[in-house]
């Protein structure tokens, strides 16, 4: 059974580790992520962007696939199915109605009052269905699903208002992280991070988790992050492995053999990442 993020994130906040959100793109990717979580005895959040959901045939296809895999793979660790960067109330509602156990409503590009008001609507609906909600304050930089933007730090008072007024379960307070590759070392606002964590006492979410060095990940967890999102790195290791397979084997044409190394690379990367986040053996 899918579970919401609420319990796993509150446990992580208390235990000073982070649960990874790993974004999925297809069947093998999902199998790989679940296999890694079970092997690490770790909770996991499967992230699905609106684009990835559309690619896979819609939310119902995704949730049916995930639920079937939980059964056939005998998955016993906690698994949340989470809409990543939901762009509207309707988008979040359709994911929940299709069986997602969690959503992110990303109204961060709207004025704060509008952001809170829209987030609150999503929270009211989600909580009535037992699903959890993540909101965003400030702006994560970089490009995701074709949308590019600059970094804008989250404001502490606005973060507090979001938590108190909308009652979100997790808060993505943008503090310098970017989607996609970093050019050089990431520069995260650790001082602001600590301030927001101390003020809100709510699990914080670090977007743009790919390419952040271990010591910065550890500090982000120390300063209140209990969820870290990883997408780009998985795409990179998958593509590298498949490219190498094709380069090494000019005769291969069975698609299952072509992409098999991609799946192995995902399992390995998710397991390694869970170790860094400290979620291994925390199921
Ligand atoms: O919401 C998804 C993430 O923030 C992923 O960021 O692609 O840089 O790992 P990333
Ligand atoms: Zn993100």
TrEMBL record:
Keywords: Lyase, Metal-binding, Zinc. Gene3D superfamilies: Aldolase class I. GO terms for molecular function: fructose-bisphosphate aldolase activity; zinc ion binding. Zn(2+) 1 binds at residues 85, 179, 207. Pathway: Carbohydrate degradation. The keyword Zinc applies. It comes from the Bacteria. Its EC number is 4.1.2.13. The active site is at residue 84. This is Fructose-bisphosphate aldolase. It comes from Jeotgalibaca dankookensis. The lineage of its organism: Bacteria, Bacillati, Bacillota, Bacilli, Lactobacillales.
């Amino acid at each position: 059974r899918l579970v919401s993020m609420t319990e796993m994130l509150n446990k992580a906040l208390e235990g000073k580790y982070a649960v990874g959100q790993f974004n999925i793109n297809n069947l093998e990717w999902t199998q790989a992520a679940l296999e890694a979580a079970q092997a690490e005895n770790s909770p996991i959040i499967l992230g699905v962007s609106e684009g990835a959901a559309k690619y896979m045939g819609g939310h119902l296809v995704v949730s049916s696939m995930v639920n079937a895999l939980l059964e056939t793979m005998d998955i016993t660790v906690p698994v949340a199915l989470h809409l990543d960067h939901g762009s509207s109330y309707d988008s979040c509602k359709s994911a929940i109605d299709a069986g997602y156990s969690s959503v992110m409503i990303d109204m961060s590009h709207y004025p704060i009052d509008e952001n809170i008001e829209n987030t609150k609507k999503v929270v009211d609906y989600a909580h009535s269905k037992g699903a959890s909600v993540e909101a965003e304050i400030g702006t994560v930089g970089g490009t995701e699903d074709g949308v590019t933007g600059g970094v804008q730090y989250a404001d502490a008072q606005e973060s507090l208002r979001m938590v108190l007024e909308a009652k979100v379960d997790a808060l993505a307070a943008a503090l310098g992280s970017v989607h996609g590759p970093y050019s050089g070392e990431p520069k995260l606002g650790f001082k602001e991070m600590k301030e927001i964590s101390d003020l809100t006492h709510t699990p914080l979410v670090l977007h743009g988790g790919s390419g952040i060095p271990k010591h910065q990940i550890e500090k982000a967890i120390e300063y209140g992050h209990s969820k870290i999102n990883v997408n780009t790195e998985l795409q990179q290791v998958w593509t590298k492995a498949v490219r190498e397979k094709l380069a090494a084997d000019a005769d291969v044409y069975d698609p299952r053999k072509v992409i098999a190394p991609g799946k192995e690379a995902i399992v390995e990367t998710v397991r390694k990442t869970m170790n860094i986040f400290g979620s291994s053996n925390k199921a």
